[in-house]
Specification:
Elements lengths: L2 H12 L17 E4 L4 E3 L8 E5 L5 H8 L2 H10 L4 E6 L11 H11 L5 E4 L4 H5 L4 E2 L1 E5 L5 E5 L18 H10 L8 E2 L4 E2 L4
Parallel strand pairs: 3-4, 4-5, 8-9
Antiparallel strand pairs: 1-2, 1-5, 3-7, 6-10, 7-8
């Protein structure tokens, strides 16, 4: 997404205009965001690779569950090790829970042991709203052709207890394994659970 279209989208969002949610099976909406190190990332830069988008708020107990248990880091490590691009996105607005400065973002990434490819800062919420991301954690899987193949929950256990991770069915892992094996994703859309994203 170029800066002109991003500006137009931001104006539409600010005006309360409905922006159509991305559909599984359709091209994933393009965007450009800057990471905590000041480097710009355009989704189109990763064409030819699988990409995971993970909406992140370290103040959310549902996110805490997946980081305290090591579940999210384990997924990140497994799939970035298979050349998957993992982009964590923080859409919390300044002054709201989950918002972090670039320095705080890098500190949290190191402390949590995240192996995400990058943590992207979406302070105005434009990209979160573009994807109709409603909660944290909420995850999307994009295939090498740039098509959205999964959207929604990380797993099937709607709790904040890290002990529940072990027995949960992980939808993101399932989607990645199926798509990377050339199979259709058997459960492509699952309603995400978590904390509402703290947009402006």
């Amino acid at each position: 997404m170029n800066m002109i279209s991003k500006s137009i989208l931001a104006l539409l969002v600010a005006a309360g205009t409905a922006v159509a949610a991305p559909q599984v099976g359709q091209p994933a909406p393009g965007f450009t965001l800057t990471d905590a190190n000041g480097k710009s990332h355009n989704l189109s830069d990763f064409k030819g690779k699988f990409v995971v988008l993970e909406w992140l708020n370290h103040g959310c107990p549902f996110v805490v569950k997946h980081y305290e248990s090591g579940n999210m880091q384990s997924l990140q490590k497994e799939y970035t090790g298979k050349d998957v691009v993992w982009l964590s996105i923080v859409s919390s607005a300044p002054g709201k829970q989950g918002h972090m400065s670039p320095e705080e973002t890098n500190k949290a990434k190191a402390e949590k042991g995240s192996t995400a490819t990058a943590v992207l800062l979406d302070e105005d919420g434009t990209v979160g709203k573009l994807y109709d991301a409603k909660v944290t954690p909420e995850l999307y899987v994009i295939n090498p052709e740039g098509v959205l193949v999964y959207a929604g929950a990380i797993d099937d256990t709607k709790s904040t207890d890290p002990a529940d991770v072990a027995g949960a069915k992980n939808y993101v892992k399932q989607a990645l394994d199926e798509a990377m094996a050339g199979k259709p994703v058997s459960e492509p859309t699952i309603t995400a659970y978590g904390c509402g994203i703290k947009y402006n």
